[in-house]
Design a protein that fits this description.
The chain is mainly α and 306 residues long. The protein is built from 14 helices and no strands. The protein has a single domain, classed as Up-down Bundle (Na+/H+ antiporter like fold), CATH 1.20.1530.
């Protein structure tokens, strides 16, 4: 339990610090956008590429865990779709509700927890898994948002959204890292140290940005639906994963990185995709804020169970 506390408290202390810094004017809205692009397009990809490129795929890649993780995500996707009807979620927010209930924040929160709880080995395993999970959850997000799109929103063109998924820097960096590792090319020391320095910016800046983007006001306005999202995303999805991993006798070393990714709160890009495809972006902000705050407790629970 001491190790779990030592993992969770520092991570969410930075999230809270980001919220306080925004309220004090240290993280103004004008700063958050460029800072997010810096982390998303440079720092996080550098960290992922370096972790995977220096990893041993023969030892750290378990295809069974990958397929089980994707299966858990697909099962939850259909549960979310059915739940949105059973819970009578209002039609205008239904698309955003379903997306936010399965679309996890792998790059900013998931990898941070994997690194600080499992170390460099766990980060490498989680980064490899993240590439597969991101491809699937982005595809499912497009499906659900397109199905529930309001009218002909200008940003709702499938080709534009599909292009962003293909060019996703996390997916691209993970694939490049896998190819680099398969080729068994020794990374030059200068390149490794440069990536290490840039990688050092990724997690702390990402956590501060998340804290600076939270909104308690929007949570209150959509409390019931947001609570449903928290239940689906933070409890049911990782529970599905745990059941599948244990039914197939996977070892904790292999499945813990996957469980951490499944237990991650709603992705910040869920807001961007909701806005791009004409869904309720305010609900997305509320879901991101609520799941991020609640994940401090649920991560502690799942790490103790795992």
């Amino acid at each position: 339990m001491g190790h779990i506390v030592a993992t969770i408290i520092p991570i969410f202390s930075l999230v809270i610090l980001g919220t306080v810094a925004r309220s004090r004017g240290f993280l103004p809205p004008a700063f958050l956008g460029p800072a997010n692009r810096l982390v998303y397009y440079l720092a996080i990809p550098a960290m992922i590429f370096r972790a995977i490129a220096n990893a041993s795929l023969t030892r750290q890649f378990n295809p069974t865990v990958v397929w089980l993780t994707l299966l858990a995500l697909i099962v939850l996707f259909f549960i979310c779709w059915v739940s949105s009807r059973l819970l009578r979620v209002a039609a205008p927010i239904r698309g955003a509700f379903i997306q936010c209930s399965f679309h996890g924040n792998l790059g900013y929160i998931g990898l941070a927890v994997a690194f600080y709880h499992l170390g460099a080995d766990g980060l490498a395993r989680a980064s490899i898994l993240a590439a597969f999970v991101m491809i699937l959850q982005n595809f499912l997000a497009v499906v659900v948002l397109q199905s529930h799109r309001k009218g002909d929103a200008e940003g709702g063109r499938l080709s534009a959204v599909a292009g962003k998924i293909v060019a996703n820097p996390v997916i691209v960096s993970a694939i490049c890292g896998i190819l680099f590792s398969i080729a068994d090319i020794p990374m030059p020391l200068v390149m490794d140290r440069s990536l290490q320095i840039l990688s050092g910016l990724a997690l702390p800046m990402a956590l501060l940005i998340i804290g600076g983007s939270l909104s308690l006001k929007l949570i209150k306005a959509r409390f019931a639906a947001v609570l449903g999202t928290c239940l689906l995303k933070l409890l049911i999805l990782p529970a599905l994963g745990i059941v599948l991993f244990r039914m197939t006798d996977q070892v904790p070393e292999d499945y813990l990185p996957a469980m951490i990714l499944l237990a991650s709160p709603t992705a910040t890009i869920a807001y961007v995709m909701a806005r791009e495809m004409g869904a309720d972006s305010d609900f997305a902000v509320a879901a991101i804020s609520a799941t991020t705050l609640m994940s401090a407790a649920t991560f502690s629970f799942w790490l103790s169970v795992g």
